[in-house]
Amino acid sequence: MKDILGLLPLEAEKIDRILSLGLTMKARLRRGEKTLPTLVGKSAVTLFYENSTRTRCSFELAGKYLGAQVVNISASSSSVQKGESLVDTGKTLDAMKNDFIIIRHPMSGAPGLLARTVKAHVVNAGDGMNEHPSQALLDMLTMREHLGTIEGLRVAILGDIRHSRVAKSNLYGLRKLGAEVRMFAPATLMPAGLATMGAKICSSREEAVEGADVVMGLRIQLERQKAGNFPSLSEYAKYYGVNEDVMKYAKPTALIMHPGPVNRGVELTCGLIDGEASRIEDQVLSGLAVRMAMLTILNEEEEA
Amino acid sequence: MIFRNADVVLGREVVRADIRTESGRIAEIAESIQADGESIDCTGLTVFPGLIDIHVHLRDPGYEQKEDIFSGSRAAVKGGFTQICCMPNTNPVIDNKVVAAYIKARAAEADLCKIHPIGAITKGQKGEELSAIGGMKAAGVVALSEDGKSVRNSKLMANAMLYASDFGLKCLCHCEDAALTEGCSVHEGTYSTLTGLKGSIRAAEDIMIARDICLSESLGIPVHICHVSTYSGVKLIREAKARGVKVTAETCPHYFTLTDAAIATFDTNTKVNPPLREERDRLAIIEGLKDGTIDCIVTDHAPHHEDDKNVEYDLAAFGISGLETSFALSYTALVGRGGCRKRGAGDFTLPDLSEKMSANPARILGLEGGEIAVGAPADLTIADLAQEWTIRPAEFVSRGKNTPFAGRKVFGKIRYTVVDGKIKYPFPALGGAGTDGGARK
C-alpha cells in the first residue's frame, strides 16, 4: 500500500489491521512504552496547509516514537507563500528522499494529487470536505476498545455534516466494519446523497440518538454562522446541540465522542464533555496509537 | 473542385450526389456531374454543410500559452468547423473595435476557417458600463456576450439588449447567479458530497436563464442562452418558446455525454462551467435537442495549459478542449452508427444533427452558410461516419489537451474540411498557413 488517502478507498481488511495494530500500540503507550525502532533511518514530513494542533502533533510524535526523522512544514512559512504549486512542492520533497509525506490541505482531493506526483507514502491528515482517515480510524479504535467491536454498533453523528470530512470518513469506515450510522444536522448543513452512501439521515436529534452506542458531536465553525447557515451559536446549541435530555434516548452505556476542538456548550453540553461517558480525551491517545499503526503498516508493506 | 459520389445532407434529406464548387461557392449539385477538373472521390463519406460553432475560446490575445488563433483555427478545421465565433474573455477583453480588428486580422493570416469575434457586453466584462458596441459591430463582431458570467445588474442587461438590437446584435447569455456559485467547482449532489468538492445547485443557472427570458419577453428582443446544463433550464426555455418568447439555446457535447459521476476521480478535466450534472439532466438535454428546445450544439472550446489543470481541483481552470471531439461525440451519442447504434438516441437523424451544428447556429447569429445549396459558400464538412476512433489528447492540434474523453471510442472521423471551396483539412502544405510556426510571418 503506497498511500492512505481515505477510508473510501481502503478495504475493510486493511482498516481492521490498522485498528488491531493500533490497539496494541495503545496498550503499549498506556504502559509508558512509547518508542519502537520501526522507522529508524526513515524520514517523514508533515505538510500542513491548514492550522492544526492535535493532528500535526499526533503525527509528528507517532513518527518520532517510531524512530523516524520528522520535519514540519506549514504553509505560512513555506514556499507556498511564494506561489509554488502543490505538484512542485511534492517533487521537491521527493527529491530530498522523504519516505512519508503527511498532508493536510483545505482543498478536497489535494492528497490524491500529491500521491500521484511523488514516490513517498502520502498520508491524508484531512483534505477539505473530503476525508480525514486518521480521525475516523482513531474514533473507531476508541469504539472498539471500549465497546469490544464495531460490528452492530449504532453510531449517531450530529453537527455540521456538510463541511465534515470526519463524518464522511467515519461513515465509510463504520459501514465497512458493519456499524449503523445515523446522522442529523440543520438542513443548511446536511449535504446531498449521504443516504445513498449508507447513512441513515434523521429528522431530529432524538431520532438520531435513539438506541445509540456512540454519540458523536462535530465541531461547529463560527464562520458557518456568518455564512448564514444558522442564526447564532446559542440557537444552534438549543435546537441542534446534544444535551442530557437528548442523551436519554441513547443506550444508558452510550459513549460521548468529539473530534475536537470542542466548543463547550455548543455541540455538547459541558456536563457531557466532562462526564463519565465522555471519551474525548481518550480519543487523543487513540489518535497517537492509530497513527503509529498507519505509519507502521505503510512501512511494512513496502518492505514485504 | 468536384466532390463525387457522396452522401450529401441536403436540407432534411440525405442524397447521393456530386457537388461542384466554383470561386468559393457551390455551383452545382447533381446525381452525376460531367465536368473536368480536380475531383475528390467521396464514396462512403458524408458531406455536411460546414459545421459552425458559435461558442469558442481562442485565448488570443493574452493567453497564448493555452491557445492562439493559429492553433485554435487548426483545431477547428480538424474538428470539421468552417466557422467559429470566439468569446471575448481575452486579455485585453474584446470590448472595442481594436481587439475585434486584431482577431479578424489574425484570422485572415491563419486562413483556415472563418472566425467571428463576439464582443463583451460591458467594458472589461466588469458589469458596469456598456462596451463600444457600435464600434465593435463595424469591426466584425457578430454577437455580444459577458461570457463566463452574467451581467448582474438587470437594468444594465436590459439596456444592453436594447442597444445591441439597434446594431442587429444578439446577446448570448452565460447564465450564472454568482452568489450561488461562489467557491463552487462542481454540481451539488451525491458526487459533490462524495468528493467533498463544493457544488452549486441548478438554481444558480436557472435563475439567470429565467431572468434573461423575462427580459427578452418584456422587451420583445431575441436572446440566446449559452450552454444549458440543467433539466430545469431546458424546461424554462421550452415553456418560454411555447408562449412565443424569442429565445434560442445551445448545449455542449459534455452535457449530453457525461454526468457528475465523472468527477469522482478528481480528474480536473471534468471541471467545467456550468458543471456536469446528473443523469436526469443529461437525458433532458437530449430530449431538448430532439424536440427543438435546444437549437444548437456548441463546444465551449476552453483550451488550457497543463499547469492550469495539474493542480488541486478547486484551483483548476474550468473548461474542456472540445473542437476536435465535438462532431464525433455528438454523432455517436445522438445518431449512433454501427456498433454504437444502441447507444444513440435513436430517432435523431443526420439532418437533425446537421441542423444543430450548421443551419441553426448560422440562423441564430445571421451568418452566411449553414446549408448546402447552389450559390451558398462552399463550406463543407466531409466525414467518414463508419470510422471508429479513440480520442487521444496527445493527438490534438489544439494547445489545450484538456479533455475528460481521453480513451473514449467514438464514430465519425472528419476527412475533409472545405472553406470557401478550399480544402483546409487535411492541412494545406507548409508555406501556406498549415502549421503553427510556419504561419507566423
Q: What is the structure about, briefly put?
A:
By secondary structure, chain A is of the alpha/beta class. Chain A contains 12 helices and 9 strands.
List the helices and strands and how they pair.
The complex is a heterodimer of chains A (304) and B (441).
Chain A lengths: L11 H19 L12 E6 L5 H12 L3 E6 L11 H10 L4 E6 L4 H8 L3 E7 L5 H15 L6 E5 L6 H12 L3 E5 L15 E2 L3 H5 L4 E4 L4 H5 L6 H8 L3 H4 L7 E3 L12 H5 L5 H24 L1
Parallel strand pairs in A: 1-2, 1-3, 3-4, 5-6, 5-8, 6-7, 8-9
Chain B lengths: L1 E9 L2 E10 L2 E6 L8 E3 L4 E4 L1 E6 L12 H10 L2 E6 L10 H14 L3 E6 L13 H6 L4 E3 L8 H13 L4 E3 L4 H4 L4 E2 L2 H6 L3 E2 L2 H17 L3 E3 L5 H12 L4 E5 L1 H5 L21 H13 L4 E2 L8 H4 L16 H10 L14 H16 L14 E11 L18 E11 L2 E4 L16
Parallel strand pairs in B: 1-4, 1-5, 6-7, 7-8, 8-9, 9-10, 10-13, 11-12, 13-14, 14-15
Antiparallel strand pairs in B: 1-2, 2-3, 5-16, 16-17, 17-18
Helix pairs in contact in B: 4-7, 7-8, 8-10
Characterization of this structure:
The complex is a heterodimer of chains A (304) and B (441). Chain A is of the alpha/beta class. Helix content of chain A is 42%, strand content 14%. Chain A has twelve helices and nine strands. In chain A, the strands form two sheets. Chain A has a five-stranded parallel sheet with strand order 7-6-5-8-9. Chain A has a four-stranded parallel sheet with strand order 2-1-3-4, with helices on both faces. In chain A, strand 3 (100-105), helix 4 and strand 4 (121-127) form a beta-alpha-beta unit. The longest helix of chain A is centred in the C-terminal third of the chain and has 24 residues, at 280-303. The mean pLDDT of chain A is 95. Chain B is of the alpha/beta class. Chain B has a single domain, classed as TIM Barrel (Alpha-Beta Barrel), CATH 3.20.20. Chain B has 13 helices and 18 strands. Chain B has helices at 69-78, 97-110, 133-138, 154-166, 178-181, 190-195, 203-219, 231-242, 253-257, 279-291, 306-309, 326-335, 350-365, and strands spanning 2-10, 13-22, 25-30, 39-41, 46-49, 51-56, 81-86, 114-119, 143-145, 171-173, 186-187, 199-200, 223-225, 247-251, 296-297, 380-390, 409-419, 422-425. In chain B, the strands form three sheets. In chain B, strands 1, 2, 3, 4, 5, 16, 17 and 18 form an eight-stranded mixed sheet that branches. The two termini of chain B are 29 Å apart. Mean pLDDT of chain B is 95; it is low at 338-343 and 432-441. The A-B interface holds A 8, 85-87, 105, 107-110, 112-113, 127-131, 165, 168, 191-194, 196-197 and B 188-199, 266, 307, 310-315.
